[in-house]
Amino acid sequence: xxxxxxxxxxxxxxxxxxxxxxxxxxxxxxxxxxxxxxxxxxxxxxxxxxxxxxxxxxxxxxxxxxxxxxxxxxxxxxxxxxxxxxxxxxxxxxxxxxxxxxxxxxxxxxxxxxxxxxxxxxxxxxxxxxxxxxxxxxxxxxxxxxxxxxxxxxxxxxxxxxxxxxx
Length: 167
Fold this sequence. Notes:
Elements: E1 27-34, E2 37-45, E3 50-53, E4 56-59, E5 63-65, E6 68-69, H1 70-73, H2 77-83, H3 85-90, E7 96-103, H4 107-125, H5 127-137
């Protein structure tokens, strides 16, 4: 037997539905890795020319790594040529402000991880335009080489053999 319908005491008031427009993010974020190093990279879109991150203000074109300018972290002209290469190939030099947190590994592994992270975040910024360019140059490919593990029964290193006595 069906139940009798209850009368509604409150009249439903319909609120106008607001359409949410998809806002572009103010930054593009990616993780880059090489050997034991990991780099968490953010590319900030600078509309007015500068971005405030925490207590630091970064201008468009500047790069901050572990709260230090990139010139201090990766010193030298050769390193500068290497970390600027993804921006040169995509023709975006000075368009973004970059901040990164890098940990693990040595200096060259960290540099490789930084380049990988920057390239992946550039790809997120404009997939149709930048993906093919970065892929051709090999910036989106993670370098799989890593330290070989130590085998049991051997000496201290991965391939070192124990010395055998002659007599």
